[in-house]
């Protein structure tokens, strides 16, 4: 046995304190000693006394753990020779110890309590099983317990499923274990494959509230972002009632808030998975209003966070739901309250409240930003209403520079959503110089923030946006060019997209800066990117760069060779119609240049390709090829006669004649216009 | 209660606001034709109603229509009308919203927005100018369709909700618990619009430009918004508030008080064994001596069993001066005794024989009826006993003729019935027989049974039987629906006969009746006129005026449940002599709570709609 004095070296010289400490440990020691008695009856009594001594007494719990009670209790629990009563009492005491601090749980885990308890579940005795489950439950709901411990042995889950029928306690504890240990799609799939849906569904109508509630929580975690589970749930029925109907009943306003909120989460997951239509009355008239109510000031801060996040998820992609939510119970105004924590009142009057407020302040802010982002995702009127909310832009700007990544991310998302509004880009965004904090966010931010922030930047760089200039001045080109080199696809897309926007109708200097910043190697790298989105945006960038005659000539004079090479490569490669069309458009732009034209005219390979696309089966490509021709043969430009002759020799005129008979009016018109150039 | 002022007075103003009747063509002008309000069937969507109002008040009517039967309003403006607020006109419901309903809700469907859709939906107090949209004047509140603003007694609106137009359904909910109002649009709550609303507001709809048509729904049709769910929430809230009402609990004071209340209740009603056990387990002392409780219990049992003579005797023995000092109580007891004699349950007539042993227990000991003898509002035994009463209808067919002769004089009647029964008394066994078979016959009620019946008649008295048959059939005319179930109960029990069917008993009863009459006269001489006593006696004697007292209009006196008030008065009187409260504190508290709820309803405190004393009596 460990020595008392070693365990509790008296920290102070205060004699009284020392005595007290010794006294406590001495009594604890006595409890542990009794576990080693030779008489099993005395051991049992010892365990029972220990149970009574530790209830609600964290100090006592810590003492017993330090004194080594846990291994002995586990030994007694596992001993086949122990009476069931003793084993049960051991499990109860261990459960009580687990109820204490996180350190207690850690100590229990270190003693390998989980396998011992799982082993105990194989016992035929229900009382013992319940005690083991109760203890397991307490351990698994602790944040220090890795949930993977539940999945180490494949037989455990199926055994737990079987135990679900034993009693309301096994039902409650097992459901609680599942709902805490189900993190992510892997766990969901394991539980789903073990028949969790069928085994737990009927518990939703249990007579015990606790069982109903834990079963409901199970479904909320099983269905979360999981289409497979969600699609299954919608067709399951219990006592002739489909699960969605049961969930709707649990949404009723006289039900406990926890139940309303959790069933709203289930229905939300099912709706997002497509299992329930977004215009179904159970979503529009039940789930959505319920979630809005969860955001109200009357609810607890935790509930408001969860309510807002769930609602944000529910309405994220459906504009009609966004519209309904925006008028329900003054939600937009209601959310403004989320930014008022900790309130000035709480700071003065109540330290405990201040602490509570502070803890939740970040969560509240990020939840509100998320919900604002969803609300404003599609509807211009809603965006306007959001921005008109008191201090909204200031709050976003502040949010962008908060220390919490979660808040920053949500604020950027909110800003991104609002940046889709042309009007807001021109007004509020400019008034509040949101580009400044945004550019700051883009420096050294984690990828998830970078993705949203760079999307927002794309919008801010649109040609009509007044923020464009200052953003350029603050070194955006360099930043965006570096994004195009990212491993992350979304970042590459956003980077090149932003550059494309930036190049649109830009002045020559900017275009040169972009080309220089990007470097031709990088440009070609992007043109051979495996992702079609990146390719398209890169071609778009090229097209924007190659606009207005002087720019075309300038760029072609410096990068002509490489560009022509790239164009040839793409036209020869296996690409979809859009890509080829975009490429032909680039050629058409080049053909519009004064000196740049020659790069095409002297390249027979390219000319053959243009000729080929004029007779392509796709009208879009034909039209794009015709733009090239049209630009090349346009009268009144230097050398137009020679070009016309050369192209006639190539048989272009014959094709034009054929096209002028086309049934497609666009092609027909274009061909006729081209032919007129020859007549003049 | 005077009807709330008909609204149309307000609408008759300069504008052409025509009310369509059930969507038919509008009548010219604004008719105030039938103000008779029938709000039946329209109540079902509101929280609660008259329940809490005292007897002296007429039930409050809910606003269930705009005007009379109309729910559809059209505004027709002429020429340049509709351009200025002056052209507006409002319509108000026929009744204000009573606070006692807790939560009130109505919906308005915009059938057509007309030219500009300047429509307002809301509330207004009586006397508010009806030529304006709701919200613009003092004590007037509205939500307007053109701008979506809310107007709170002011010409300038506050941004509130979305605009509304043709096809939209706008709901208005008044919460009389916290005096707020919120609107709904197409079933979606738009959030609180007004707070601190005054009481007695009328649902109001105002229109301004030509062609605007709206249709109001006060619950005739299902609402778009789930108001039931909202009410559920408030019911739960109120109940939680009651359940969690803070009680200043010092050192278990509250618990002790509750225990005292329970104990005093048990003692009061004389459940001495229970009271004793309860006192023992809760460590209390019972104020009254056990013997005294037992005495009271004995007397109560006698009263409840209908053995009034014994009850009076026992009371006089145990509490010698009690009835002397309370002549009115004694009189009431004796009147009851007379009734019990008619019933055949009083000991004095019962011992005279001729009574089946079964009916001695005519007050069947059901635990329920004993558990609260003084106040059980609905009595499980009611139906049962009524049934027996009716079933025995054929018994006193002899009286039928006397009754039809219209001889009601008490004195004459008594002698008459006496002689009549002398004539028939010989046939008692046979009559019993006939009764049994007849009840079976009535049960099946087929023509075959008539033959069977005549067999029995040959044993009995022809006159009686024919009368009996008539009685039986006429009874059917009146109570077709009831008889089936009643008769089933009947056939398993023996019928009742006047004074248990014994001739001697009837004589005794007549004699007793005379004594009672004398006592009444003496009482009047000594204590002056007493209308209550007079009525009591008259009602009791009236029993003899019917061939079948049990099913007669005064027959309910024979119902064992009527023993309870007498029993309770006697019990209270005994307790008072011991200086104990004449009502148990528990009953007092309950009465107080009910009164309080009534008072809340009258003073406009809406939460009373979601609380009833009965909810807590289970």
TrEMBL record, chain A:
Main location per the UniProt record: cytoplasm
Annotated InterPro entries: ARM-like, ARM-type_fold, Armadillo, ARMC8/Vid28
CC terms in the record's Gene Ontology section: cytoplasm; GID complex; nucleus
Keyword Cytoplasm on entry: yes
Ranges: ARM repeats: 68-104
Gene3D superfamilies: Leucine-rich Repeat Variant
Subcellular location: Cytoplasm; Nucleus
Keyword Repeat: yes
GO biological process entries: proteasome-mediated ubiquitin-dependent protein catabolic process
Protein's name according to its UniProt entry: Armadillo repeat-containing protein 8
Organism of this sequence: Meleagris gallopavo (Wild turkey)
This protein's encoding gene: ARMC8
Automatic annotation (TrEMBL), chain B:
Boundaries of every B30.2/SPRY domain copy: 19-223
Compositional bias annotation for Low complexity: 362-378
Classification via SMART domains: CRA, CTLH, LisH, SPRY
The CTLH domain, residue ranges: 292-349
GO cellular component labels: cytosol; nuclear body; ubiquitin ligase complex
One Pfam family cited in the UniProt record for this chain: CTLH
GO molecular function, one term: enzyme binding
Matching Gene3D superfamilies: 2.60.120.920
GO BP term, example: negative regulation of ERK1 and ERK2 cascade
InterPro entries: B30.2/SPRY (IPR001870), B30.2/SPRY_sf (IPR043136), ConA-like_dom_sf (IPR013320), CRA_dom (IPR013144), CTLH/CRA (IPR024964), CTLH_C (IPR006595), LisH (IPR006594), SPRY_dom (IPR003877)
Record region (Disordered): 354-378
Source species, domain of life: Eukaryota
Family: Belongs to the RANBP9/10 family.
Protein name per the record: RAN binding protein 9
């Amino acid at each position: 046995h460990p020595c008392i004095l070693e365990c509790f070296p008296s920290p102070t010289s205060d004699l009284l304190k020392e005595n007290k400490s010794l006294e406590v440990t001495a009594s604890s020691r006595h409890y542990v000693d009794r576990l080693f008695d030779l008489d099993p009856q005395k051991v049992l009594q010892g365990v029972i006394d220990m149970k009574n001594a530790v209830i609600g007494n964290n100090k006592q719990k810590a003492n017993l753990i330090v004194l080594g009670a846990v291994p002995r209790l586990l030994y007694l629990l596992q001993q086949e020779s122990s009476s069931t009563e003793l084993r049960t009492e051991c499990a109860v005491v261990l459960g009580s110890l687990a109820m204490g601090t996180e350190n207690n749980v850690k100590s229990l885990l270190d003693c390998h309590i989980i396998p011992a308890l799982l082993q105990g579940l194989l016992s035929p005795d229900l009382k013992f099983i319940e005690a083991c489950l109760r203890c397991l439950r307490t351990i698994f709901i602790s944040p220090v317990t890795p949930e993977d411990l539940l999945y180490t042995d494949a037989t455990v889950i199926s055994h737990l499923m079987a135990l679900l029928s034993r009693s309301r306690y096994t039902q409650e504890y097992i459901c609680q274990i599942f709902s805490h240990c189900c993190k992510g799609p892997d766990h969901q799939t394991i539980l789903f494959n073990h028949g969790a849906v069928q085994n737990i569904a009927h518990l939703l109508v249990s007579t015990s509230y606790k069982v109903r509630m834990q079963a409901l929580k199970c479904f909320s975690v099983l269905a979360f972002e999981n289409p497979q589970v969600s699609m299954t749930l919608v067709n399951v029925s219990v006592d002739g009632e489909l699960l969605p109907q049961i969930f709707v009943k649990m949404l009723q306003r006289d039900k406990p808030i926890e139940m309303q909120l959790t069933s709203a989460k289930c229905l939300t997951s099912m709706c997002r998975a497509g299992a329930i239509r977004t215009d179904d009355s159970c979503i529009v008239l039940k789930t959505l209003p319920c979630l809005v109510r969860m955001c109200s000031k009357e609810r607890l801060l935790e509930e408001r966070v969860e309510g807002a996040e769930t609602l944000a998820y529910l309405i994220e992609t459906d504009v009609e739901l966004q519209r309904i939510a925006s008028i329900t119970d003054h939600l937009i105004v209601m959310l403004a309250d989320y930014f008022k924590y900790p309130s000035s009142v709480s700071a003065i009057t109540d330290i405990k409240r201040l602490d509570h407020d502070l803890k939740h302040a970040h969560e509240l802010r990020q939840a509100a930003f998320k919900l604002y982002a969803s609300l404003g995702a599609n509807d211009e009127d809603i965006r306007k209403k959001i921005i008109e909310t008191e201090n909204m832009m200031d709050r976003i700007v502040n949010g962008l520079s908060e220390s919490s990544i979660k808040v920053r991310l949500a604020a950027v998302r909110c800003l991104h959503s609002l940046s889709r509004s042309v009007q807001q880009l021109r007004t509020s965004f400019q008034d509040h110089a949101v580009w400044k904090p945004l550019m700051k966010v883009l420096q050294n931010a984690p990828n998830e923030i970078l993705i949203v922030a760079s999307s927002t930047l794309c919008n801010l760089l649109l040609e009509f946006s007044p923020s464009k200039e200052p953003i350029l001045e603050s070194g955006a080109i360099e930043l965006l060019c570096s994004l195009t080199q990212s491993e992350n696809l979304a970042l590459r897309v956003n980077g090149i997209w932003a550059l494309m926007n930036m190049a649109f109708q830009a002045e020559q200097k900017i275009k040169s800066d972009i080309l220089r910043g990007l470097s031709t190697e990088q440009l070609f790298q992007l043109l051979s990117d495996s992702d079609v989105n990146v390719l398209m945006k890169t071609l778009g960038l090229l097209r924007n760069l190659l606009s207005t005659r002087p720019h075309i000539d300038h760029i072609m004079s410096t990068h002509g060779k490489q560009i022509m090479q790239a164009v040839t490569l793409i036209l020869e490669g296996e690409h979809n119609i859009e890509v080829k069309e975009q490429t032909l458009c680039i050629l058409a732009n080049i053909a519009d240049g004064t000196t740049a034209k020659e790069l095409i005219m002297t390249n027979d390979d390219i000319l053959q390709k243009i000729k080929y696309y004029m007779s392509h089966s796709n009208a879009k490509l034909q039209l794009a090829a015709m733009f090239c021709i049209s630009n090349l043969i346009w009268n009144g430009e230097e050398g137009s006669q020679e070009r016309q002759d050369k192209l006639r020799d190539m048989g272009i005129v014959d094709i034009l004649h054929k096209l002028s008979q086309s049934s497609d009016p666009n092609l027909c018109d274009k061909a006729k216009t081209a032919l007129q150039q020859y007549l003049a | 209660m005077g009807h709330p002022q008909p609204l149309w007075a307000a609408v008759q103003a300069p504008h052409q606001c025509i009310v369509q009747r059930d969507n038919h063509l509008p009548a010219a002008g604004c008719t105030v034709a039938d103000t008779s309000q029938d709000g039946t069937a329209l109540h079902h969507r509101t929280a609660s109603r008259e329940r809490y109002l005292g007897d002296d008040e007429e039930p409050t009517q809910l606003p269930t229509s705009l005007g009379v039967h109309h729910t559809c309003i059209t505004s027709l403006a002429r020429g340049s009308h509709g351009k200025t607020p002056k052209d507006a006109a409002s319509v108000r419901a026929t009744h204000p919203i009573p606070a006692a309903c807790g939560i009130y809700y109505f919906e308005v469907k915009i059938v057509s927005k007309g030219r500009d859709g300047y429509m307002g939906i809301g509330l207004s107090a009586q006397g508010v100018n009806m030529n304006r949209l709701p919200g613009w004047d003092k004590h007037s509140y509205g939500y307007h369709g053109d701008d979506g603003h809310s107007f709170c007694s002011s010409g300038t609106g506050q941004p509130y909700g979305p605009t509304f137009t043709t096809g939209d359904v706008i709901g208005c909910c008044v919460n009389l618990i916290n005096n707020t109002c919120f609107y709904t649009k197409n079933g979606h709550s738009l959030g609180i619009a007004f707070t601190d609303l005054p009481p007695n507001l009328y649902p109001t709809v105002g229109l301004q430009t030509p062609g605007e048509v709206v249709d109001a729904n006060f619950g005739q049709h299902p609402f778009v918004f789930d108001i039931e769910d909202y009410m559920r929430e408030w019911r739960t809230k109120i109940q939680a508030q009651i359940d969690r009402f803070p009680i200043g609990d010092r050192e278990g004071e509250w618990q002790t008080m509750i225990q005292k209340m329970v104990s005093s209740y048990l003692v009061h009603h004389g459940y001495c064994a229970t009271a004793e056990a309860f006192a023992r387990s809760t460590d209390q002392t019972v104020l009254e001596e056990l013997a005294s409780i037992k005495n009271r219990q004995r007397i109560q049992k006698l009263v409840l069993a209908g053995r009034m003579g014994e009850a009076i005797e026992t009371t006089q023995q145990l509490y010698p001066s009690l009835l002397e000092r309370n002549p009115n109580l004694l009189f009431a007891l004796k009147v009851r005794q007379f009734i019990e004699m008619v019933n055949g349950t009083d000991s004095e007539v019962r011992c005279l024989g001729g009574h089946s042993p079964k009916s001695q227990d005519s007050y069947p000991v059901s635990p329920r009826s004993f558990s609260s003898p003084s106040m059980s509002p609905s009595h499980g035994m009611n139906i049962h006993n009524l049934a027996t009463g009716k079933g025995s209808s054929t018994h006193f067919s002899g009286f039928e003729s006397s009754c039809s002769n219209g001889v009601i004089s008490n004195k004459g009647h008594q002698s008459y019935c006496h002689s009549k029964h002398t004539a028939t008394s010989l046939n008692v066994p046979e009559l019993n027989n006939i009764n049994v078979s007849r009840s079976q016959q009535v049960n099946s009620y087929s023509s075959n049974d008539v033959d069977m019946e005549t067999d029995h008649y040959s044993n009995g008295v022809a006159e009686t039987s024919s009368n009996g048959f008539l009685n039986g059939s006429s009874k059917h005319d009146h109570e077709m629906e009831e008889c089936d179930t009643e008769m089933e109960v009947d056939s398993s029990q023996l019928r009742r006969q006047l004074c248990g069917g014994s001739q001697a008993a009837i004589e005794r009863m007549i004699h007793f009746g005379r004594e009672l009459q004398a006592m009444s006269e003496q009482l009047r001489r000594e204590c002056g006129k007493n209308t209550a006593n007079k009525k009591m006696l008259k009602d009791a004697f009236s029993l003899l005026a019917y061939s079948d007292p049990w099913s007669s209009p005064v027959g309910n006196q024979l119902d064992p449940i009527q023993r309870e008030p007498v029993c309770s008065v006697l019990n209270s009187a005994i307790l008072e002599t011991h200086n104990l409260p004449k009502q148990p504190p528990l009953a007092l508290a309950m009465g107080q709570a009910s009164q309080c709820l009534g008072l809340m309803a009258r003073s406009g405190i809406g939460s009373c709609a979601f609380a009833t004393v009965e909810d807590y009596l289970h």
